[in-house]
Amino acid sequence: MNASRSLIASQDLSGRVAVLTGAGSGIGKATALTLAAAGAVVVGGDIDGAAASLTADEIEAAGGTARAVTTDVTVRAQVDALIDRAMSEFGQVDIVANIAGVPHNKLVAECTDEEFERILAINLKSVFYGCQAAMRVMSPRATGNIVNISSGAIDTPAPTLACYGMTKAAVAMLTKTLAWEAGPFGIRVNAIAPGVIETNFSKHNFVDEDGNVDPEKLEGYRKRFGRMTPLGRVGEAQDVADTILYLVSDAAAYMTGQILRPNGGQAMPW
Ligand SMILES: NC(=O)c1ccc[n+]([C@@H]2O[C@H](COP(=O)([O-])OP(=O)(O)OC[C@H]3O[C@@H](n4cnc5c(N)ncnc54)[C@H](O)[C@@H]3O)[C@@H](O)[C@H]2O)c1
């Protein structure tokens, strides 16, 4: 086999089944389309079921196979049901990407109990449920890949980011610990800590009061955050999706317990 053919084969996901959360928008949507383009069957969950269905429709229109499942990741039974849908229809789950998450900006002194519980539920407990469900179906087959979405917020403490950063730091620690527990079963577990990525997640930076994109604000957002990186630009969802494709593919066969940082160089931890 020549080098270029083996390179293509190492990122070929044909015959694999991927379950993703957050499939309706941003990084989750880009990842769903990317894994499907690499040959995987995709089962995408999102609390916005209509948005997840649009993603599935796009995949099927391009010749792939996809299902959408309305899923609130804060409810363990719904996360289990998402995984079980993939098992019952396709008989296996090879990839689980726990992507759904929300931003949170509040000073520690001002954060209410309700807000704190909400951000823990959406950004942390959901990933724990997703990892548990993944282990349940992957362990008996002694193969699989789990990717959790952490955040660059774990690298750079900043005012108002305590709750968000705590959930994402916990996701990183969960990932590393589970890598030890899952490794003996042939299951790899990695995390991604994206930098500033232009998605709905960040749109509060560039929309007007009616929620419409304000071109001036958008330009300002791109400049302000782009300047924080050596590459001089904010990231796109595709930048993260490509990193996830790498991690779940055989090209990353010796990678586990790692945190990869598609962040334009904004932070450079050792
Ligand atoms: N965009 C960034 O700058 C950035 C940076 C670092 C990390 N992240 C992380 O990346 C992940 C994806 O974010 P994104 O930028 O694609 O945002 P996004 O808003 O475009 O997409 C998030 C998706 O999650 C879904 N979701 C929200 N709550 C849910 C719930 N309870 N159950 C199921 N689905 C739910 C939303 O409906 C949406 O489709 C998040 O975990 C976020 O914390 C984003």
Largest sheet: 7 strands, parallel
**What is the terminal-to-terminal distance?**
35 Å
Q: Low-confidence segments, ≥5 residues, pLDDT <50?
A: none
Per the CATH scheme, the topology name of the largest domain is: Rossmann fold
Indicate the topology.
Elements: H1 3-10, E1 17-21, H2 26-37, E2 41-46, H3 49-61, E3 66-70, H4 76-90, E4 95-98, H5 113-138, E5 144-149, H6 162-182, E6 187-192, H7 215-226, H8 237-248, E7 259-260
Parallel strand pairs: 1-2, 1-4, 2-3, 4-5, 5-6, 6-7
Helix pairs in contact: 2-3, 2-8, 4-5, 5-6
Walk me through the structure.
This protein has a seven-stranded parallel sheet with strand order 3-2-1-4-5-6-7, sandwiched between helices. The protein has helices at residues 3-10, 26-37, 49-61, 76-90, 113-138, 162-182, 215-226, 237-248; strands spanning 17-21, 41-46, 66-70, 95-98, 144-149, 187-192, 259-260. Helix 4 packs parallel to helix 5 (113-138). It has eight helices and seven strands, in the order αβαβαβαβαβαβααβ. It is globular and about 45 Å long. The longest helix has 26 residues, at 113-138. It folds into two domains: 3-196 and 236-260, NAD(P)-binding Rossmann-like Domain (Rossmann fold); 198-234, no CATH class. With 270 residues, the protein is an alpha/beta fold. The mean pLDDT is 97. The two termini are 35 Å apart. Residues 21-22, 24-28, 46-48, 51, 71-74, 99-102, 122, 149, 151-152, 194, 196-197, 199-202 line the site of nicotinamide-adenine-dinucleotide.
